[in-house]
């Protein structure tokens, strides 16, 4: 039995030595510098994106202004349309035959069928 314990001790010592070794990290940070062409491409791309963002904001502001103008025009158009409808209704009431006959009676006028002439277009 003493031999088995001796073998275990040697075996454990062999593994314990391996685990006690400090871990060395051989990876180094590599710093790559950009070429002049790459720098110029990045600069032009950044400036282009910035200009496009400004154009987009300007276009949205312009669109909002036009939308407000369109709403005011639609509102005034609706008011004019309502006024036209009211005036057409008033014209219809003023041209009604009952109203014309009442005015004729007040003025002692009479309607003679001999004097009526139908004109068709």
Can you describe what's shown?
The chain has 121 residues and is mainly alpha-helical. The protein has three helices and no strands. It is rod-shaped. It is a single-pass type II membrane protein. It is found in: Cell membrane. This is Cell division protein FtsL.
Give me a quick take on this structure.
With 121 residues, this protein is an all-alpha fold. The chain contains 3 helices and no strands.
How are the secondary structure elements laid out?
Blueprint: H1 2-19, H2 36-94, H3 97-106
Organism: Apilactobacillus apisilvae
Keywords: Cell cycle, Cell division, Cell membrane, Membrane, Transmembrane, Transmembrane helix
Subcellular location: Cell membrane
What are the defining features of this structure?
mainly alpha; 121 residues; rod-shaped; 72% helix; 3 helices; 0% strand
* Coarse structural class: mainly alpha
Instruction: Give the number of DSSP strands.
Output: 0
Relative helix content = over 70%
Shape call: rod-shaped
Keywords: Cell cycle, Cell division, Cell membrane, Membrane, Transmembrane, Transmembrane helix
Organism: Apilactobacillus apisilvae
GO biological process, one term: cell division
Subcellular location: Cell membrane
């Amino acid at each position: 039995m003493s031999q088995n314990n001796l073998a275990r001790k040697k075996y454990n010592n062999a593994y314990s030595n391996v685990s006690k070794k400090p871990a060395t990290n051989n990876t180094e940070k590599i710093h790559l510098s950009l070429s002049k062409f790459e720098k110029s491409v990045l600069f032009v791309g950044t400036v282009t994106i910035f200009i496009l963002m400004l154009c987009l904001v300007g276009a949205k502001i312009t669109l909002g202004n036009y939308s407000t103008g369109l709403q005011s025009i639609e509102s005034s158009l609706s008011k004019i349309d309502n006024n036209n409808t009211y005036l057409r209704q008033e014209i219809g009431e003023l041209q009604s035959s009952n109203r014309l006959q009442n005015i004729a009676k007040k003025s002692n006028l009479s309607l003679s069928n001999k004097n009526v002439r139908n004109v068709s277009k």
